[in-house]
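User: Predict the full complex structure for these chains.
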Amino acid sequence: MAAAAAVAALGRSLSAALRLPRARPGLPGMALNLYHKNLPKVETLPQVKFLHTTVSRRGLEEFFDDPGNWGEKSVKSGDSWNIKQLRGKSSEDLHKLWYVLLKEKNMLLTLEQESKRQRKPMPSPERLEKVETSMKNIDLVVREREIALRLLQTGHEKPVPGEWRNDFLGRTFWYSYKEWPIPWHLNKKHKKKRFYYLPHVNHFIRLRLEKALRKRARQQSLERTRRKVLERKFPDVAVKSQSQ
Amino acid sequence: MEMTKLDIRNYLERIYNVPVAAVRTRIQYGANNKRNHRNQRVKKPDYKVAYVQLGQGQTFQFPNLFPEKEQDAETRSFDDFRDKYMEKEKQKEEGDPRRGGVPDWFGL
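Assistant: Here is the predicted structure of the two-chain assembly.
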């Protein structure tokens, strides 16, 4: 009996007639297709209203794509946002765009998981990469602005002060200061760390340098041979670049 | 994976406008039994599962994201071509019809 009651409760909380979701909500004061810059203008289907007994589930419907796209083999989408395009936007616009992209990413991830479950190919998975690069670019732009503001206000680039240090292997790295409850000369574990190297390490520094130089020379020669091959295959393009 | 019940509740309520009544989470352990070609164990990643109970009498049915749609002319023609090719291959494999399906291994 208890099990039946529990199952009934479960059914009540989960079951519903299949509702056709409506068009995607746009945030106020914004163009609807903000997340993909060059999205082709799609005609919206006529709104078909079904009887709702619940509050508008605009929320959970946002985890899924436009229902017209369900079952399609591929969905058209524009390019990702470039850093140059984003630098011209205001901070409020970037904030809104970030959340639009976040919701889009959640939608694509649910689609990916569902396609794995149904063992079907996900329609146009390149959308995920585009969204991720757009979000990364927004992050970069915001960081740049933050650094610029900090430079103007305090004169420091980095939020946390630090310095260049050598480790016991002779490598140079940026050590950023941390907040400690006790000074470093009372910290036993910290005193075991060596921020200097002994003279016998110079030999290995030299070897590392040679390795890096060899790698760089290899990359440059590879680039040169690739360019020569291309010039041989497409001589007309090579002549144009030389004349320019 | 680091999202707590409170985080999930706030996320859904503020970003998606979904009223949440209760959230329960658990961590699903990913198995480490499979082995690769080097006999090293390959781990499936662990992940967190959240069970969210919607509030205010809301209901939700997970939609069918891959409904059957009618194929376009290209895929239909390709399927026809493929079926015809398979038929031809089968006909080639069949032997003399007068032998009544008996393989050629048997003499006479």
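The interface with chain B takes residues 13-19, 21, 54-55, 57-60, 62-65, 67, 70-72, 99, 102-103, 111, 114-115, 118, 120 of chain A (CB under 8 Å).
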